[in-house]
Amino acid sequence: MNKPQDFPESWHPKPDLLPGISVDCVIFGFHDGQLKILLLEYKNTGLFALPGGFVQKNEDLDTAARRMLEDRTALSKIYLEQFYTFSTTSRRNDETHRTIATASGRTLEADHFIFNRFISVGYYALVDFSTVVPTPDAISDSCNWHDISSIPQLIFDHNLIVNKALDTLRFMLDSKLNGFNLLPPTFTMNELQQLYETILGKKLVRSNFQRKMLSLGILQRLDKKQTGAANKAPYLYCFIKPQTTL
Amino acid sequence: MNKPQDFPESWHPKPDLLPGISVDCVIFGFHDGQLKILLLEYKNTGLFALPGGFVQKNEDLDTAARRMLEDRTALSKIYLEQFYTFSTTSRRNDETHRTIATASGRTLEADHFIFNRFISVGYYALVDFSTVVPTPDAISDSCNWHDISSIPQLIFDHNLIVNKALDTLRFMLDSKLNGFNLLPPTFTMNELQQLYETILGKKLVRSNFQRKMLSLGILQRLDKKQTGAANKAPYLYCFIKPQTTL
DNA sequence: ACAAAAGTGTTCTCCATACACCCATGG
DNA sequence: CCATGGGTGTATGGAGAACACTTTTGT
Questions:
Q1: How confident is the model at residue A10 (pLDDT cuts 50, 70, 90)?
Q2: Residues of A in contact with B60 (CB under 8 A)
Q3: pTM score
Q4: Nucleotides of C under 7 A from a protein CB
Q5: Does residue B4 belong to any structural domain of this protein?
Q6: Which of A24, A182, B79, B208 could form a disulfide with B181 if both were Cys (CB 3.0 to 4.6 A apart)?
């Protein structure tokens, strides 16, 4: 896939968009023992940014965020969560906008709506790395995974947004049990533990982690997984979705 | 005090306000063993609403919220926390706006900016009940405390906003220790316990509560408080503000 | 002396930690 | 058979729940 889509109307001053509101998405995935997020790289600039976009007049924020996520990942039914709204007056920068536009062969009129002040609502999403098809938008030439441990400098306040998303993810990890959204439908206990260790940034004791997870009563043990390694074959588990509480 | 202020410019279409963004404040206080919030009642309508307002072009959301809080409480240095941004397309209602305007002797042009779609950022504040001077704004004739247990029907989605604020307050109570902001500078252990019980909506065991609070190491014991009651005089405590962690 | 509320101590349970021990697998 | 990693059991310590006991105050 990975091919740009049609030039979005949102880059022209259009009356069908809410003025002054944007959405930025921190899309988390997990692969090779590393927590990763999707970043866009703008054409010919070396500038990186979070996926995001604007809100249509007839659309609420959750819907807008979901639309953007589906565009960037080619997935539907994504777990996402609003976490904070960013509003400092200096968070945007006209020069950056011009650089991005120029590099992709456009010019922005001085009264282009993008030069208005914008307030941005941050969402984080948790996706199954293996099923995502990273898809750039019209003004970026790549959409790729970046390890949390080596995020480049991002435009505007996007580094701040990433950090706040990470803080929220860590804080909510236990209460929302949202670690499971980052794994494929079946996984081993070791994979789950690696994920927790990566998110929390610390080692956990294997045997205790196993008991804690099993005691939650939300995991179902499936067949063993033959890894081909010279050791005991681990069980596969799947997540039992909580009953829709009436 | 309690006297309306000058008619705010924000009720005319003004270019110095951000379009489509508002702030709503859930202001918590504690008195007589009851958790309370400040509500405005609009003139001659019987309609209740959260204090709120609009955001100036050169103002970030925290500043805007703080400005509104100071206007409604006559306090400065208020503890406040952003908790969620509300954006459903149907959250506002033109007829309600007209009712409120008409009742206070105004007419709204059909293209008045208030008929735009608005996205509202929710803040909750924790204040010392005893020092607040509830102050109505220009289009309301009262600003009063209401028990959490008997919140009337509010305009728009304000009941939803109150509930979300309460949920957040409960969830954060332990981790942010923000109960202390609701009490006067000195207080007894019993008052603190009543506050916790009210917020959490359940009884706590007195002796255990005492030990837990003291073990946090954030309370300083002061003199005893002579209540005049026929029982042992309780100690007063004050909150030791956490060191500004560099 | 008594009631009522504040403060302290004791016991029990539960859970997180740490670590020891068995089991399965492929080389 | 042995190295490796997966699964289970056991001892310990600390926090919370439940409750008993002591102390202080005004009537």
A1: very low
A2: 87-89
A3: 0.90
A4: 2-10, 16-20, 23-27
A5: no
A6: B79
Using the 3D structure, point to which of A171, A201, A220 is the last residue of a domain: A171
Domain check: are B38 and B111 in the same one? yes
CB-closest option in A19, A59, A87 to B20: A19
Q: Which is higher by pLDDT, A24 or B242? A: A24
Q: Check which CATH number belongs to the domain holding A204 and give it.
A: 1.10.10.10
* Residue A4 placed within a domain: no
Torsions phi, psi for B101 (to 5 deg): -65, -50
The average pLDDT across A241-246 equals 55
Question: Of B123, B147, B171, which marks where a domain is finished?
Answer: B171
Give the whole-angstrom CA distance, residue B232 versus residue B12: 59
B196 and B163 inside one domain: no
Burial class (CB in 10 A: 0-12, 13-18, 19+), A246: exposed
**Residue labelled with tokens 């969830």:** B171
Same domain, B159 and B203: no
Which of A18, A55, A63 is the best substitution to test chain B (most B C-beta atoms within 10 A)?
A: A18
Q: How confident is the model at residue B9 (pLDDT cuts 50, 70, 90)?
A: very low
Residue B213, domain member (yes or no): yes
CA distance A98 to A95: 5
| Per-residue pLDDT at B16 | 87
Q: Which residues of A149-182 are buried (b: 16+ CB within 10 A; e: fewer)?
A: eebeebbbbbeebbebbbebbeebeeeeebbbbb
DSSP state of A21: E
List the structure tokens of B190.
């019993």
For B192-242, the pLDDT digits (tens) are 999 999 999 888 999 999 999 998 888 999 988 877 888 889 999 998 876
Count of Cβ atoms closer than 10 Å to residue B24 Cβ: 25
Predicted local distance difference test score (pLDDT) of residue B242: 61
With beta carbons less than 8 A apart as the criterion, state whether A31 and A49 touch: no
Q: Residues A59-80, buried b or exposed e (16+ Cβ, 10 A)?
A: bbbbebbbebbebbbeeeebbb
B62 to chain A, closest Cα gap in Å: 8
Q: Are residue B87 and residue B133 in the same domain, yes or no?
A: yes
Look at chain A and report how many structural domains it folds into: 2
Q: Identify the CATH number of the domain in which residue A108 sits.
A: 3.90.79.10
Task: Return the beta strands (E) in A87-178 as ranges.
Answer: 119-126, 140-147
Tracing tokens 């001053």 back to the chain, one arrives at: A13
Does one domain contain both A189 and A124?
no
- The residues on B that touch A, with CB distances below 8 Å, are 18-21, 55, 57-62, 82, 84-85, 87-89, 117, 119, 121, 171, 175
Are B141 and B54 members of one domain?
Answer: yes
Statement to judge: residues B162 and B215 lie in one domain: no
| Same-domain pairing of B102 and B208 | no
